[in-house]
Amino acid sequence: MFFYKYVSKIISIIAFFICIFGFSYVYADDIDYSDDTMSESALDGLYFETANISESSLNLNSRSCIVLDRQSKSILYGKNEKNKVKMASTTKIMTAIVVIENADLNKTVEISKKSASTGGSRLGLKTGDKITINHLLYGLMLRSGNDAAVALAESISGSVSDFAILMNNKAKELGLKNTNFETPHGLDSDNHYTTAYELALLTDYALKNPTFSKIVGTKNYTININGYPKNLSNTNELLGNLNGVYGVKTGFTNGANRCLVTACKRGNMDIICVVLGADTKNFRTQDSAKLIEYTFNTYTYINIENKINEYFNNWISNNKDNFFIEKGSSQNIELNYSSLENPIIPVKKTDVDNIEIFIDINTYLQAPINQNDKIGNINVLLNNTVICHCDILNKKLIPKKSVYSYLLDFFTNYTYYLNSVGI
Questions:
Q1: Is the pTM for the entire model greater than 0.90?
Q2: How many CB atoms lie within 10 A of CB 68?
Q3: Which of 7, 33, 100, 300 is the most buried if burial means most Cβ atoms within 10 Å?
Q4: Of 115, 144, 155, 288, which residue is the catalytic one?
């Protein structure tokens, strides 16, 4: 009887500690332990439901999200997209690009005790294991291994804290003013944060690197640890299941909730969708798919440079004789306009016919007018909002008249006067 009481007390104590500590454990992605996984059949149904979704019916669960057009860097949809938030394992986007830009990917590293003991989602590394940096990157981005993140940080900088300096230097280089990194894996910390907007900009930068793009677009991959193969599957539930998706990264911690960064391209439109702070994996998947389908159904590209060029040339033809250049050696002014940062821009399909172009220019000028002097503006408006601007510039120098020119004008005009009066 005493034995049973003793065992019962031990079980009660164990249960108590499980209740206290088990629910406070912080994960860094969604592998195996998730009870809200989404099947491919559920995804198929979701795509059907979102085929013609409108902005008013999005009903997003995510606390913060954005859709960024990669070509123009325009925000096509945003919700709290500039709020500072935790980002969980989407942190590893920065980890990966810093490693790729600073390491020999063929180098073999030995796993430290610190790396092997890192909690959360894991690649399954043990102290003393040998693995290449390239395979660690696949473990980082496909399996979301926190142990791989620490191993990579140590291989580049010697420590997690020193690697975080590299991460923050890169963020500063990219102009990410509301982003700060403390670790390469993204476990919760009050001083480890970004915004949906800046995470999208970071992702856009990283995807320009072919090695990064190849890794995050890989569905399954076999790595080698100590010479033995290990098969990995990508945690990104949309990769291979939603048309056009070619990356990028999942994430989960208790503080960040469910996160997903998705790159998707259909035709010539290429977007990045970021959802942060969704309550469940189902919600983050639904929100991402809704935003992607909404974007491709709603937006189209227009060549704004062609529209400006046609309007500008017509305006010049109708107004070239209206210019007067005081003291100018010539009245023949030639104009062009400054180059556009984004000659092709996305607009809602329903707004294509609402684009207006306005030219603001002073036709009364005073010499000298130097080459490339600004003499006016072109503004492109959509629904009374400026979406594009460029300067009107003088193409060729128009100097002041010289004394010789004035004398020549005088004698020319005087001779004309004499002839006109019959003298």
A1: no
A2: 27
A3: 100
A4: 144
Per the residue annotation, which of 62, 64, 72, 89 is the catalytic one? 89
Residue keyed to tokens 């923050």: 168
Residues 6+ apart with CB under 8 A from 94: 167, 170, 171, 181, 202, 206
Told to judge if 74 belongs to the known catalytic residues of this protein, a careful annotator would answer: no
Tokens of 32: 């195996």
CA distance 207 to 73: 14
Q: Cis link prior to 346 (omega < 30° from 0)?
A: no
Place of tokens 């403390």: 182
| Domains detected in the chain | 40-300 (3.40.710.10), 323-403 (2.60.410.10)
Which residues face 210 on adjacent strands? none
Q: In this predicted model, what pLDDT tens digit does every residue of 342-397 receive, in sequence order?
A: 999 999 999 999 999 999 998 999 889 999 999 999 999 999 999 999 999 999 99
92 is catalytic: yes
d(CA 303, CA 48): 31
Q: Which residues contact 213 (CB under 8 A, 6 or more apart)?
A: 206, 207, 246, 247
Residue 140 tokens, joined: 């980082």
